[in-house]
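Today's session is about reading a structure prediction critically. Students often jump straight to the picture, but the first step is always the sequence itself: look for stretches that repeat, for charged clusters, for runs of hydrophobic residues. Only then move on to the predicted structure, which in these notes is written as discrete structure tokens rather than atom positions. Here is the chain we will use throughout the hour.
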Amino acid sequence: MNRFTRFLPDRFTLFLVITVIIASLLPAHGQGIDAFEIITDIAVGLLFFLHGARLSREAIIAGITHWRLHSLIFTTTFILFPVIGLLLKPVLMPLVTPELYLGIMFLCCLPATVQSAIAFTSMARGNVPAAVCSASASSLLGIFITPIAVGLVVVKAGSSPVSFDAVGKIMLQLLLPFVLGQVLRRWIGGWVHKRKSLLKVVDQGSILLVVYTAFSEAVNEGLWHNTPLPALAGLILACAVILAVALFLTTMLGRIMKFNVPDRITLLFCGSKKSLASGIPMAQVLFAGHAVGAIVLPLMLFHQLQLMVCAVLAGRFARRPEADEGGRH
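Below is the predicted structure for this chain, in token form.
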């Protein structure tokens, strides 16, 4: 019986599957979407506040100055992903339409996610300070790098102006709560440190909220209706292949660089993800006049897939023995 139960999904994975099913059958609409976005923003802000209150100043400085890890994450996000998309073109093109392949290359040029990458890193007991620094910097750099990358590998055109609203949102929603947590750490740090279960609830709760909100928006945009069934199946397979290659490469690079387990976890979750929040607004600007729905559909599917797969991986890492925190295996 024990051998059988080892292969059963854990409670969080079940909650994740249930969340996806609910979002598919009962997606939030209109004001409901707005309400869930506000609740999600509050939950993520609380998560960063608690991390700021819990992490020592020494740990944060070590995370910011970990240049080997950050450079590898940025290389994976902005160089390896486009190369993967180009090299896999002979395999991917027969699976999808030309418009969908254009969308695949667009997602390969995008920055990493911020919220879920850090939440998964925290849940898996990775290097959270490094994840905060790397994911935030990736999103900011993506405002400048993504239009250039799209011009080079997608549309062969000059970069278009991109909204800088994402900068303000990152500062307000993520960095400000983190800084406030650091300021108040002197008074509440001990209380937060003793309540790891609270941080776990906020971690997992914020992920479930992100999944439900993102999936609701994708369903409302016609996730299951905007493309023929064979092309949709091919697109799902194409996204799965790209994600699998990215996860494999980030795992192997972490081992080659001899990072410890927390750093390898950070590389895995920050270097293999792509941002839906940044991608949708950028697509509307960079592909004005094109069928934007077909271009962002690969991103919507990849986003849902990466959330589900990374949630399972984070759960597995979270169950590892405490003794492996600083290990290199």
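Discussion point for the tutorial: Residues 11-314 form a domain with the Na+/H+ antiporter like fold fold (CATH 1.20.1530.20).
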